[in-house]
């Protein structure tokens, strides 16, 4: 079985366009679904965050109105409790040797817009993983982390690559709205990524070689499934 690095935001807030602080963190459904399905497939998952800081769950992602009901909210809360020891003591990204992992998975929440998108160590890991052909799988706001991946010549490592991400429309209508400090889809397009979006809130995955991306929380299980398939195909 494979070793998987799950890079999680360590941010607990996002500074909005008007200067206010919006509480955030990682999105429960995304981390829970990916971790659960990857471990169930027999893989080993290691958590990593900037500075080795214990990540914060976005409280909104455990609200029954966001999870699809009380039962799922309890399910996510219980699962996070079951992995609290490992989630609470992540590896610092600066200490990560990308050669030790077959895949890098990056769940979202708005937190990556605060830290992962600008973290040089995240960029180092992603560039090395991509050059080694490791599976790279960010989804929802997770693809914001790709923005940190700059090659030594200053070029964007994922320019020209096909991917999907939480869309500007989804952000405006069901995310943080017009007060969003910057839009991940637009920023990735500006850097040269080729964005392929589906209808808002639909389960949508794009695979471009070793890069597997999902559009939103609804795509979490599909992304994990594609990662499992990709690793199985490698033997």
TrEMBL record:
SUPFAM superfamilies: Class I glutamine amidotransferase-like
Record key words, sorted: Glutamine amidotransferase, Lyase, Stress response
Domain DJ-1/PfpI residue range list: 30-229
Record-stated family: Belongs to the peptidase C56 family. HSP31-like subfamily.
Identification of the protein by name: Type 1 glutamine amidotransferase domain-containing protein
Organism: Agromyces salentinus
């Amino acid at each position: 079985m494979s070793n998987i690095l799950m890079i999680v935001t360590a941010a607990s807030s996002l500074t909005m366009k008007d200067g206010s602080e919006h509480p955030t963190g990682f999105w429960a459904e995304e981390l829970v679904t990916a971790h659960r399905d990857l471990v169930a497939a027999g893989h080993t998952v290691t958590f990593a965050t900037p500075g080795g800081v214990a990540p914060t769950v976005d409280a909104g992602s455990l609200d029954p109105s966001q999870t699809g009901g009380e039962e799922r909210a309890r399910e996510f809360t219980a699962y996070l409790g079951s992995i609290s020891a490992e989630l609470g003591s992540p590896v610092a990204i600066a200490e990560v040797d990308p050669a030790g992992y077959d895949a890098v998975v990056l769940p979202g929440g708005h937190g990556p817009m605060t830290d992962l998108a600008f973290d040089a160590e995240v960029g180092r890991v992603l560039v090395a993983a991509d050059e080694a052909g490791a599976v790279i799988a960010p989804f929802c706001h997770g693809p914001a982390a790709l923005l940190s991946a700059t090659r030594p010549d200053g070029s964007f490592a994922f320019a020209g690559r096909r991917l999907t991400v939480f869309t500007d429309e989804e952000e405006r209508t069901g995310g943080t709205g017009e007060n969003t400090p910057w839009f991940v889809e637009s920023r990735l397009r500006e850097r040269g990524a080729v964005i392929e979006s589906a209808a808002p809130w639909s389960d949508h995955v794009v695979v471009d070689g070793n890069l597997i991306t999902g559009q939103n929380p609804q795509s979490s299980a599909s992304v994990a499934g594609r990662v499992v398939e990709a690793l199985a195909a490698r033997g």
